[in-house]
Structure prediction request, 649 residues.
Amino acid sequence: MRNPFVMQCGEFHVDYKQDMAIWKIARVRWRIVTIVALFALFPMVATDYVVGLATLCGIAGIGAIGLNILTGFTGQISIGVGAFLGVGGYTSAILTTKLGISFWIAFPLAGLITALVGALFGIPSLRLKGLYLAIATLAAQVIILFVISRWDSLTGGTAGLVLSRPQIGSFTFTSETSYYYLMFVVLLITIVFSLNLFRTRVGRAFIAVRDRDIAAEVMGIDLFKYKVLAFFVSSFFVGIAGALLGHYTMIVSPELYSISVSIEYLAMILVGGLGSVFGSLYGAVFITLMPVVLRSVVDVLSGTFPGLEAVLIGMKEVVFGVVIILFLVYEPDGLNKIWSNIKNYFRLWPFSYTK
Amino acid sequence: MAFFLQMLVTGIVVGSVYALVALGFVLIYKSSDAINFAQGEFLLIGTYVCLTLVASYNVPFIAALLLALAFSALLGWSVEKVVLRPFIGKPVISMIMATIGLSSVLAGIVHIIWGHETRVYPPVFSEKPLQFGEVIIAPVYAWSFVIVMIWLIIFTLFFKYSRFGIAMRATADDQQAALSMGISVKTIFAIAWAIAAIVSAVGGVLLGNINGVNSSLSLIGLKVLPVAILGGLDSIPGAIIGGIFIGIIESMTGGYLDPLVGGGLKEVIPFVILVIILMVKPYGLFGKKEIERV
Prediction:
């Protein structure tokens, strides 16, 4: 009998083109189509609350893929994602509410403007790397948030701005399900784009910069160009995620984009797997759902241990930190590696000693 | 002129506290090539322990301070052993994320134990302001400055003459050479973390005396990062000069520019200066330039 878990037999590559293919064999194609179809059909059976959570996970996934392009693939640590999300959200908010531009134009513009701001803060990256660059992006976070909360006439100051949901013709994306589909389409485009990015010249150059930038430069890669480009591409997706999030929650205000958001996004790509597109998604889902799960655990336990509610926020922080440290120590390659280990186990079963 | 001098003095005092906390960053970076994003939480825990001893158990201030310092040293020591030890030699991002995770854990513990509301120290220093010509200084500022200076002198002497201080300098210079001379690099790392926790706790107690204590005090940890970077992450004099420089700039901005823009610029200006300095001198004012070979 054929083992149903054997997924990738029949891989006989004879040229590079086959080796680099995303859909290597027909079976993989069917599997991917099935998974996409399942996610597309899922809101039909789920409650609004679950669909809403899934939307948040998806939006976080877009942002996490963006950050992973910069940090996981190009090796430039950024502690400023929170602020770049803010730039995206605010750009879309200002364009749609103050200037009355349609969401469908404001949305890509939000990505573009965030990309420009990101590239601007990426300029020091030529001379800085590692810790120093991380601190420079931390400075970006602080400075951008300051501008946002002080430029009252444009951003509404600390009160923020109220947005509306996007609409096509007379149809408005008010329901959870419709917004889920909007997010889903953007997420699919992001995934396809970033999967393909790392098969192109530019993506390969990013990876070369990460692995050893000086060697890359010796081989003729223009470091400055590719480092700034990485900031640009990464910030574009972060900005898109910010705009989507802004129109979903229908409010933007400075405290939504604090440094703890930046840290959450870093945690996502770390828990998911640095330098992995799907890892970013797993991490985004994990980190987004963690407080929700913790909340329900506390709800169950608070019958037995009264007073647990009061320490919920503190507990969240402790669990968050412990998860990060445990992943770093025991599985630095993240959920993506765990998942591929599981797949390998079944693929090789019952000959688990083969590698 | 009096206003200018007043701002200058305030800046120097606050800056000297920054310098002390920045010393913690520098020590850890010098010994183990990591930046400790949990420095702010070390500061907070030390401050809260001291406050609890003083306010709830009526321990005399000096004794409480010493106990809090001992506790901080133990905390820094054990954190290095338990959390950071697996990350020696790992990529920068692992180090950064490990200390960020650590800071989240410590912040959570602080929230669980001490809650969120601001508490104040019972008056430790006399409240009668000192008058120097036109400049008025609160005794708590004067004492803070004196205490910080004493600590900085102690550490300078410690690094120059003590056995451990010399061993730390050797380790920072070349870990392998230090190992082959019989220095236990692991012990040095642990000591570096313990000292970093101690200096943070001192800084925290002083700032707590000036402004009161709540969990946002840990943000000082982030604010002091520009100080450490400005001076150069591996330079102790850099930390001191950077600290005082940032303190003065911040105080001047608070005095002269904040009224013009409506406040808040004071918090941002260290980061703006940081970006400018990094563009010109990527390794800070006194940092050692790393030479890379392919």
In short: Chain B touches chain A through 47 residues (CB under 8 Å). The CA atoms of residues 116 and 215 of chain B lie 6 Å apart. Residues 1-280 of chain B form a domain with the ABC transporter involved in vitamin B12 uptake, BtuC fold (CATH 1.10.3470). The radius of gyration of chain B is 19 Å.
